[in-house]
Amino acid sequence: MKAIRVDAFGPPAEAVRFLEVPEPESPREGEITVSVEATPINPSDLLILSGIYGALPRLPTVPGKEGVGRVIDVGPGVRGIERGMRVLLPIGAGAWRERVKVLAEDVIPAPEGVPAAQLAMATLNPLAAHFLLTALVNLGPGDFLVQNAASSAIGRWIVTLAKERGIKTVNVVRRASQVNALRELGANVVLVDGAELGKRITAATRGASIKLGLDAVAGGATTRIAGCLGRGGTVVSYGMLSGQPGHIATNDLVFRDIHLRGFWLASHLATIPKEELRELWKRLAGLVASSAVAVPVEATYTLDRIKEAVTHAEREGRSGKIVLVPQGG
């Protein structure tokens, strides 16, 4: 069986190895074997490969935090899951391989008739977007939030889920070419990052006091997001696409009572009852099936091109996700 393995952390294109590994053993009680259709390369995957993620797996390891596939073998005692069924893989299954064995209770059925690449991205970003909107700051209909990296996969989910709740979004992007797609998705305000961002947001929102700023970039972007918030607002840092530490102006902290906190999906998921999480996951996957959210895919790669794939995923200025297709195609 073909798979990607990491034996040592380092630059992503150097850390990944394409090789033959043993087939999964036959599934035992409560287990199933899944043939992986598609699995994305997420920023968290790249951080793991680099050895700088918050929780690193024991080496050697097969990367891939999410994906979709079809059940090809079912162990004793499994109910409700059959051969041929399409399923979303559990978080952290190690999806960068052709086949993987998992617990049946940890997957959810995935709809037919939806591109595998879209379903492969139906776990991490939708769940993170939901909790960023609901678990940290009390936002109601008519309230504003501001987010950077708004054209990213999670940014698109935030726009969609906020719109469902009547929350208005101010969306900061890096390039003017990204503006129209977000407006079509339902974004209220879309602005290109840069000088006097706060003043431009104040003008676009007619002086609305913004309670929540979502920062996926860090570095100077954190400062700019904080400067856009109303007094007592909260900046939530959940990524570091810039590779730089985030910082906030002392004046914002002291005189405007701006708060800064972090969010890590893995840590938050540990506090959610399993059945509640499954029901939420099913609902979000349903939005993918209805095409309410479609994340652009810039390129797909087979496993044997993994070094090209991770190099592409690291490239600035991409227009979409990079997705691995272990079965080819």
UniProtKB/TrEMBL annotation:
This is enoyl-[acyl-carrier-protein] reductase. It comes from the Bacteria. Its EC number is 1.3.1.104. It is an enzyme of class 1 (oxidoreductase). Belongs to the zinc-containing alcohol dehydrogenase family. Quinone oxidoreductase subfamily. Residues 10-324 form the Enoyl reductase (ER) domain. It comes from Polyangium fumosum. GO terms for biological process: fatty acid biosynthetic process. It catalyses: a 2,3-saturated acyl-[ACP] + NADP(+) = a (2E)-enoyl-[ACP] + NADPH + H(+). CDD domains: ETR_like. Pfam families: ADH_N, ADH_zinc_N. GO terms for molecular function: enoyl-[acyl-carrier-protein] reductase (NADPH) activity. Keywords: Fatty acid biosynthesis, Fatty acid metabolism, Lipid biosynthesis, Lipid metabolism, NADP, Oxidoreductase, Transit peptide.
